[in-house]
Structures are given as C-alpha cells and as structure tokens.
From TrEMBL:
Source lineage: Eukaryota, Fungi, Dikarya, Basidiomycota, Agaricomycotina
Protein name: Uncharacterized protein
Domain of life: Eukaryota
Organism: Hypsizygus marmoreus (White beech mushroom)
InterPro entries: TPR-like_helical_dom_sf (IPR011990)
Length: 800
C-alpha cells in the first residue's frame, strides 16, 4: 500500500531505464530506519558479520550505508547517492512481495559493499555472498559497469543466478533492473541465461524496452560467425524484435527526405542476415516483410530485387545491402558483402556490380573505417573480376585525404604482387596522393621496397609530380639510396620554366650531394683496392678498374653540377638568405671543399649576422671529418664562451671519432653530454653512430668485430632514452652481427635492449631469431654459469 501511495501522490510513473529518483525517494521514505548511535549495527548485520569473522578469524569491519566495508569508517558520514541500477530496481519491488519480518529487513536493502570486499568474500567462499542484500549486488554491479570490468560483472550476475538465497522475486527484480540498463558488459551466454530465467517468470520479457531489445540485437550480431548458442538466442529474441520493430514506419512524401531510421531498424537489418546465416529462413522472411511493409526497405530497392537466381539467402541479402547503402549504413553493407563474396565460389555479375556500387558509396566522403572496408572489398572482388581503375585512383585519393597510410600501402602492395600483375595492371596513385604515398613508404612503412617500385613507376612511366611536391619526392628517393632513380628525376625537372623548385631547394641539394658524393667515394675506394691486388686476369681487372675510375669521376662531376646549379640560382651569394649560405657551406664540407664552405660563412660575417648553433655545427662537421679531437676541443671552447652545444654537436664529433676508431674520444663526449645535461640523441643520430661503430673494414678479424659490437653496446646502454627499440631494423642488424662473430652474450644483450619489448612476440622472424640466440647460448654454455643460462633462456621464452 505504501508503494501504491507513491504512485497516487503524483510522484510519477516509473519507466524502466529512465531516471526514477523521485519515485525511489518516495519508496524509501516509507521505510523505517532505526536511529543508531555511531558504530552500532542492526541486529541482523551484527549476527552476519560476527559469523563471518568467527569462521575466518576476520577483524570486525564497519559497514556504511553507501561505500562498502572499511575498518575505520563512521556511520555518521554522509552517504553517496543511490546507484542508477538501484533506482531502476525500485520499480520491480512493486511487483514482488518483500519479507516484512522486521523494519531492519527493509533497511538492509540500502546496504552496499565495495567491490574489493565482495571479491574477497567470494574468494574465501562463494556462499558468503549468497545472502547479501539486493542493494549490495546492484552496487557492485554498478561499480563493475563504471570501471568496465567484464569479469566482475559476469561474476555478480552468475552469483545472482546460482547462489543468491533471497528468493525468486528479488532475484527476478535484480535481473529485470539489469536487463533494463547495464547488460552490454556481460558475456553473451550469461545474458542468454538471464533471459531464459526471466522468460519463466510472470509477465516474461514484456518489460524490455525498445532500447534493450536493440542492445540484445546488436549483441547477437556483433559477429557474423555462428556460435553454439546463436540459435537459442535468436529464437528468444525473434518475437521481441518483431514486436518492437513493427511500431516504426518510414514516412512518405516530403517527410521522407529528412527521415532516418532509428537504431532498432539498423539492428533488425543485422538480425535478418544473422537469421539467414543460421538457416532460420521463415523468421528472416517474416522480419523482412515487416521491413518492406513499413518502408524501411525503400520501395525503389524492392523494385530492383532479382529473384531469378532462386537463392533465397542471396535475394534477401542483396536487398539488405542496397537498403543499407540507401540509409548510409555503409559498414553494415560492407560486412554483408564481404561475407557473401567469401561464401560464394563463383559470384555472378550482379553480385560483382553490387560490390562495385558499394565501394563507390564507401568512397563518398569516407571515414577511416570506410577506407579499410574498401581495401578488403577491392582484394576480394579482384579474385573474381578486375576492379575498375577509377575506383583504385579514387581509393588512393581518399586515403591521402584521410591520412590512412597503412590502408593505401596494403592496396598498393596487393596490386603490385606478382599474382595480381599476371592478370591485371592497376594504376598507381595520381596527383597529391602520389608523393603522399611515397612519403609514407619512406618514413612510416617497414616495406621500404615498395618505395623503390613506386619511384621506378614514376621514372619509367613518366608520371607527373605536382609542382609543390617534386623536390620532396626526389629527396625522399635519394634518402633511400636510389641513385639512378633520384638522378633521373632530378635531371628531368632541373630544366624548364619550373626548374627553380628543384635546383634552388636547399634540402634536396644536400640530399643529392650527400648521396652522390658517397657513391663517388665508394667507386674511388674500390678502384684503389683493386690497384693493390694481384689479379689473375690483369687485363680484365684493368678494364674494370678503368670503369670504376671513370664512374667515380662522372659521379663527382654530377655533384659539381648540382652544386653549381644551386649557386647559380641563388646568386649573388652576398645577398642570399642565411639558410641558403649555411646549406651551401654544409654541401661544400661534405665533398671536401673547405675553402668554398668557409667563404659562404664569410658572407654572413660581412653582413654582421651572428652564426647560430646550426651554423656552428656545420662548421664543426668540416673539422671533425679530418680531425675529430680538434673538433672536440672546439666544443670545449664553445662551452667556455657561453654557447650551449646540442645533441647534434656531440653526435657529429662522436660519429667522426668512431670512423677514426677513437673510442676514448667517444666515451669522453658521452660523459661531457651527461655533465652538461644535453638532451638525448635523436633516433636518427643514434642509428648513424651505431652504423659508424660497426662499419666493416677489409681483412678485419672476428675479435676486432666483437670489439666494435661492444662499442655499439656501450652507445645503446649510454642513451636508453633514445628508445632504439623503436627501430627494429637496427636491433636485428646488431643481433645478427653478434651471431656472425659467434658471441651469444652480445646477441642476447642487443635483443634484450632493442627487440624484446618492441617486436611482436609471435612474429615468425622474431621467433626464429630467439631460437638462433638460444641455440648459440647452449652451444657455448661453457662461457656462462648455469644461472645465467637459465635466465637468458627464460627471457627468450625458451627456458624449457
């Protein structure tokens, strides 16, 4: 009668899933809660806590009405608001009879318990939570939802289903409250058990709201894979969905323009297809007919249905896809289409055309998810028929616009695979998408060989590059070491009316000079080594030596051409910008023209422009190439006059010291960096130092190579903040180099520092590398004690 009075006094009607705080307050106002002095508990709780404490020798905790169990809480503290689930639960109290033995029995309904206390009781004995009040269950469940703890939520619901001893009425009340609000976190099989339990209760599942039914539908269609309980779940869901979706009709006339179906209709589309996958054809047809009658399947889609195939599933599925595209549910359409293609060995042209239409729709103002879906559909459609070239071009353009480099890389790699090239040649990216993909492949991709393929296509097919991106594209090509390709592109665009964007670009000039000066020096060095050898066929070797000498000279001439074109464009140099003169000086130092480089700095001094730290580093690089110790003295002098050397300054000196095999100077620079608290080296600088430290030399012994690798280990350990692990290529290079010189200790240390946490554990190459290290450790176990061996093998995941 008290609950009835709450409704009759105008407090309001309780709506499941809504905020019914007013009604809850009215209900609670009717409950007698005795006034208690501090730290005094109701008799029922005193007995329960004492029983638990005596059984497990627990200290007696205090229980507060909101907030759970603690050892030092005062009952006079303010209580927190009731949880939303508890508020919903009050609605279902009116449908069940509560025990009315004592007033304190009702007071128990408001006691809550912390999640930690609940789990501790459950761990000791699951039966300890069997007699907890309903508010405790609902409070712990609400906390599980709040912290998104799937396991805790599943445990609480299973306890309600299996061990709760408060009677069926209260159990069903809690489960109804749960299904009206917070069941998405639960395992699907547990939700099914809850529904089966409530189906047997009075009024069954009629209490479920449209929102709840929609949630159940999305849960069962989250995956198109058929699970063991799918058919049972669908049989239970089907009548509920049929009832709720029948309430919605798409308007006609002018209102149809702005209409968009509610979520329950989207869920119905997915359920219809799920019913088809489990062969519930009659149920699928019934729901489909409701969708047609309510115009949720648009009339124009119904008119395009082709029943000539006689395949019931295919007919319904294609209609669902076209209707999904009509309502802009592109992800659903792509999912169904992917499943259709995977399940159809030889799809006819109508299915291919439907997929092409879907890809075009996905590429119309796409999201990142749409781009991914397009990539999947392109690969699957190609198995049966070539995809139109216009789609491929539009895909690259959309990927560039959305900056989804991995998706574009995947499609480009697919279209350039030998199996695809045997049957069809798809176009490369065009416009701004072309240099964008090149930038991604050279900076963010592990499949750098694709960048060579793309650059080759640009050269061989004379593909146009956007004017503003030409210098960047050529620079990226040169940075990868593609000499022939970068030279061909430079020579193509270094003439004509727009040549200035190439010959006058400082970054491109530095890249080209650095690459081709290095190639020239390598050819000259190889020629010099051949002159010192005693070949068996002197005539053949002499001819080869002439070729190497001529190649070195030709490459040096090309370097001079690049440098001269840069100077000519920026003349008069006396008026050239500061950055241009600094770049010119740097290029001159790279090729050994120190006088010309210093002349460039002289222009700055004549204009009374103070050199900055970048200028100082450029000048320092010229000295360090020939005399790294003199460069180190310059660094000391810089600190004395108030300049602050940066990481580039120290990196320049250390790099050249390593080239001169002066490890003592390297260590001195490391200590000076630490004393000056200089910011750590960049990953690029660190990689350069490592390569310089382990660079091979002719007729080098394994002991010398081990010493170099030990030097590299010193560098890696000296700069842990550089995160060398983010460059797995360097880590693999160091590990393989250590294995080649038969040093398992170095190999393990490099793996532990560079690869253990940064490389996917189950990657095939990573697994093979770990086995190789472990094999060498066992082979050379005399170098270690047993504890070291066990530790290393355990870290490698091969301890057994």
């Amino acid at each position: 009668s008290s609950l009835s009075s709450c409704k009759s006094t105008g407090v309001g009607v309780v709506i499941p899933g809504e905020n019914n705080t007013g009604f809850a307050e009215c209900v609670l106002s009717q409950v007698h809660i005795p006034k208690l002095p501090n730290r005094q508990l109701p008799l029922g709780y005193t007995r329960r806590i004492n029983a638990i404490a005596s059984k497990y020798k627990l200290s007696r905790p205090n229980i507060r009405l909101s907030g759970g169990i603690s050892s030092r809480d005062n009952l006079s503290k303010p209580t927190s608001p009731l949880s939303p689930v508890f508020t919903t639960y009050t609605k279902y109290l009116s449908d069940s009879s509560l025990p009315s033995s004592t007033p304190n029995a009702k007071a128990d309904e408001r006691d809550e318990i912390t999640t930690e206390a609940y789990e501790e009781l459950r761990r000791r004995d699951r039966n300890l939570v069997a007699s907890l009040p309903t508010a405790s269950y609902l409070h712990v469940l609400a906390e599980a939802v709040k912290i998104k703890s799937h396991n805790l939520a599943d445990q609480v619901v299973l306890d309600i289903l299996e061990v709760y001893t408060g009677g069926n009425a209260k159990r069903e009340g809690m489960l109804r409250a749960l299904m009206s609000k917070d069941f998405a976190l639960l395992d699907r099989d547990i939700v099914l058990r809850v529904l089966q339990t409530l189906q047997e209760a009075p009024n069954g599942l009629d209490f479920l709201t449209t929102k709840s039914v929609e949630g159940l539908a999305r849960m069962i269609t989250d995956s198109l894979q058929i699970c063991g309980t799918d058919r049972t779940f669908l049989r239970l869901l089907y009548p509920l969905l049929h009832t709720h979706m029948s309430r919605y009709h798409a308007p006609g006339g002018i209102h149809a323009v702005t209409y968009h179906p509610p979520g329950i209709i989207y869920a119905s589309f997915a359920v219809v297809y799920k019913l088809l996958t489990v062969s519930f054809q009659q149920e699928a047809l019934n729901l489909f007919q409701v969708l047609v009658k309510s115009r949720q399947i648009p009339p124009e889609v119904v008119q395009t249905i082709d029943g000539s195939s006689g395949d019931f599933k295919l007919i319904i599925s294609t209609a669902l896809v076209r209707a999904s595209l009509h309502w802009n549910w592109r992800a659903l359409a792509a999912t169904v289409l992917t499943d259709i293609l995977d399940a159809t060995p030889t799809p006819d042209q109508s299915i291919i055309d439907l997929n092409i239409d879907a890809i075009y729709a996905l590429l119309d103002t796409p999201t990142d998810r749409d781009i991914r879906a397009c990539g999947h559909l392109i690969r699957r459609v190609h198995r049966h028929s070539p995809v139109p070239n216009t789609i491929i071009r539009q895909f690259y353009s959309s990927a560039a616009e959305k900056q989804t480099g991995n998706e574009a890389e995947g499609v480009y790699a697919f279209t350039r695979s030998p199996a695809v090239l045997e049957t069809h040649h798809y176009p490369p990216p065009q416009g701004v998408a072309l240099p964008w993909l090149m930038s991604h492949l050279t900076s963010a991709s592990h499949r750098t060989q694709l960048s060579r393929i793309l650059a080759s296509e640009v050269v061989d097919d004379n593909l146009p590059l956007p004017l503003q991106d030409r210098a960047g594209f050529i620079a990226a090509t040169a940075a990868q070491g593609y000499g022939k390709l970068s030279r061909a592109l430079w020579e193509r665009y270094a003439t004509g009316k727009d040549s200035s964007v190439i010959v006058g670009n400082s970054a491109l000039m530095i890249r080209m000079v650095s690459l081709f000066a290095n190639l020239s020096q390598r050819s000259a060095a190889k020629h010099k080594r051949q002159q010192l050898e005693q070949p068996e066929d002197r005539r053949a070797r002499y001819t080869e030596g002439e070729d190497l000498e001529a190649r070195s000279a030709e490459l040096a001439a090309f370097v001079d051409q690049i440098l001269q074109a840069f100077q000519t464009y920026h003349e008069p140099l006396a008026k050239a910008p500061h950055s241009v003169l600094t770049s010119l000086a740097r290029a001159c130092f790279i090729i050994g023209k120190f006088t010309e480089g210093l002349d460039a700095f002289r222009f700055l001094l004549d204009r009374k422009e103070l050199p900055d730290m970048y200028d100082a580093n450029v000048a320092l690089s010229a000295v360090a190439r020939a005399r790294p110790r003199q460069a180190a003295r310059m660094v000391r002098r810089m600190t004395e006059v108030g300049l602050c050397p940066d990481a580039t300054t120290f990196g320049t000196v250390m790099h050249n010291a390593l080239l001169h095999r002066d490890m003592d100077l390297v260590k001195d620079m490391v200590e000076r960096m630490r004393s000056l608290e200089v910011k750590h080296l960049s990953l690029k600088s660190m990689a350069g130092l490592i390569r310089a430290s382990v660079a091979p030399v002719d007729e080098e012994s394994q002991d010398d190579q081990r010493a170099k690798l030990a030097d590299a280990l010193y560098l890696v350990e000296s700069f842990p903040e550089t995160n060398i692990g983010s460059s797995p290529q360097i880590g693999k290079y160091l590990v393989y180099s250590s294995l080649r010189v038969h040093d398992p200790s170095l190999a393990f240390k490099f793996w532990n520092l560079c690869l253990r946490e940064s490389t996917e554990w189950n990657d095939l190459e990573h697994r093979l590398l770990r086995r190789l290290i472990a094999k060498m450790i066992r082979r050379r176990q005399q170098q270690f004690d047993n504890e070291e061996i066990l530790t290393m093998l355990s870290r490698l995941g091969l301890g057994h």
